[in-house]
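Structure ticket #2291
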Amino acid sequence: MKLIFRLLAVALVTVLVFIVAGVVATWAPDQSVESLSAQWALPPSQFVVVNGLSVHLRDEGPRNDPLPLILLHGTSASLHTWDGWVEGLHGKRRVIRFDLPAFGLTGPTADNDYSIAAYVRWVGAVADTLGVETFALAGNSLGGEIAWATAAALPQRVRKLILVDSGGYAFKPREVPIGFRIARVPGLRRLAELVLPRGVVEKSMRSVYGDPDKVTPALVDRYYALTLRAGNRKALGYRVDQLMQTDFVKSRAIIQSLKLPVLVLWGGRDRLIPPENGVMFSKDIVGAQHIEFEDLGHVPQEEDPFRTLKPVIQFLNQP
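Resolution: structure written out below.
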């Protein structure tokens, strides 16, 4: 009997050693904006104070553009997700993109309000700060939901709308990124504020690409680093909680009320928000154009910026 207890004690100690070693190996405390900016806020990045918050943004292109384009990223992403589009529009359009509150280098707000209504106010406030009265608006995923809600709230200012795998309707995902699943569980997300295996970020990224092999180490490095921005992981928990309160009936009524030129882009291999939702947008918004890229996933603008930008340029050039 003593031998059995001794063996159990050894086994328990061994398990604890492995647990402690795992925690130590994946220990990832918050990083300051200053330490991250050296790599992720290079020119033309700037930090602009909007409503008391230092917002990381990039404002590029000709200032005489009659219709600047504002780009809104999705959950846990950053303004960098639009790098390919911005490169393709270089010198042709004024393009404004910024890290939404709770994400990227902008980070959390004091009130932790990450509702769609709050984000709509942020879009208007950023445009006001930059002196932009009217603009075209594009958004991916969460950014798409913010985009159509902004178009509804500011119809005199938003002249064209581009929705890329946008939120807005109820949906049944085929696969939820592991990072999002962790954020749904209070105990796990508290642990995730201190421990973050790089593999979790990589697996999450691979799940939102149509071709997971396109997820490069450099891409994972960026998402991983910006997730560590002080306060972002805790803010994601607040955002997930507020997402659960969405009234999809009310959302659909707002979508159906939109009366402006709309382009809907979707990845046919989107396993998070299924392509059927893109079809719903095109049916609910009168005159909306709809293009599906059958081989791309949830972030098609990032996975294949060259191909996805082509219809955007045509759309923006239409009178």
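Closing remark: The beta strands are 46-50, 53-60, 69-72, 95-98, 135-140, 158-164, 262-267, 289-293.
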